[in-house]
Amino acid sequence: MRPETDAPVENESGSVVELLERIGSVVLPVGVALYAVLYIGIEEIYGVFGVSPQQAGIDQAVLFGRLSGALVLLLLLLLPTLGLIVGVLWVLDKLTLGSIGRLSRAVRRRPWIAALVAALWCGASYWGFFSVFGDLDLTAMMIIAVGLGVLTFLVPFRLLRRKPVGRAGMKLLVGALTGLGLGFLLIIQLLSAATDAHRTGQTDLLLAAVGFQSQWADLKNPEDNKPLYEGRRMMLLGESEGTYVLYDCDKGETIRRPIEATLLAAIESDPELPQDHTCGTLAE
């Protein structure tokens, strides 16, 4: 038996450039698709408060910066997870005397099996889409996801695996659908967090990760420095075209006020609110 060594072995693996190309062919489509879907998620967050991101002053440049930061945080979480999975598979492969490695190579040598695995994965990536735009139970979503994967992706993936360029295209498609699936799952969590923020006035780390800022302030009249709206503190959603967009938690409604007629005082980010705090207590 040949002893294990960390020294490079010729003809067993590609160069560093080839490795980077392989990683990029997977990470790039996942990241692009995830970014596109997160844009929809930002619109859904502000939609809970009855405004659009543009009305709150979130333009494309600001949105790009916020979503890029969110993707970096997500990458920092996924890298250790991916490393852990690889490590566990390596240990299992050693414990099974290489059975897992042989199984993986056998699957890759059989185009129909490889195409079936990729098709089922792509079908499963629609899970989040159905959860966001549909009202289906778990069984129905599983049937639709499996059926969609087999009926629409199996044969095309088998044909794509005939040539190297086809296999590369299949990787791009699988990566893009994976990013879309992850994005829609994140949208579900973002919608839930935004709904809780609208109901209780409290935000969580997920909303903060995508750049939703929980800033509260007292509103005063700039002419006489007297409190407005009976001194109620409000959440500042943003500003655009000379107008503040504010969420009146006590009444559970979103209002707009001209900037020149509004003085923000005692601004506080992520204030400590009581655990049982709820919005809409003064709603008519």
Q: TL;DR?
A:
The chain is α+β, with helices and mostly antiparallel strands and 284 residues long.
**Overall 3D geometry?**
elongated
Overall pLDDT, averaged? 79
N- to C-terminal distance: 81 Å
Structure annotation, total helices: 8
- Helical percentage: 55-70%
Transmembrane segments: 23-42, 70-92, 112-133, 139-160, 172-191
Keywords: Membrane, Transmembrane, Transmembrane helix
Topology:
Blueprint: H1 16-48, H2 60-95, H3 99-109, H4 111-124, H5 127-133, H6 138-160, H7 164-200, H8 205-209, E1 215-220, E2 233-240, E3 243-248, E4 253-258, E5 263-269
Helix pairs in contact: 1-2, 1-7, 4-6, 4-7, 5-7
Overview of this structure, please?
Keywords: Membrane, Transmembrane, Transmembrane helix. The chain crosses the membrane at residues 23-42, 70-92, 112-133, 139-160, 172-191. This protein is an alpha+beta fold and 284 residues long. The chain has 2 domains: 16-200, no CATH class; 213-269, SH3 type barrels (Roll). 58% of the residues lie in helices and 12% in strands. The chain is built from 8 helices and 5 strands; from the N terminus they run ααααααααβββββ. It has helices at 16-48, 60-95, 99-109, 111-124, 127-133, 138-160, 164-200, 205-209; strands spanning 215-220, 233-240, 243-248, 253-258, 263-269. A 5-stranded antiparallel sheet has the order 4-3-2-1-5, with no helix packed on it. It is elongated, with a radius of gyration of 25 Å. Mean pLDDT is 79; it is low at 1-14.
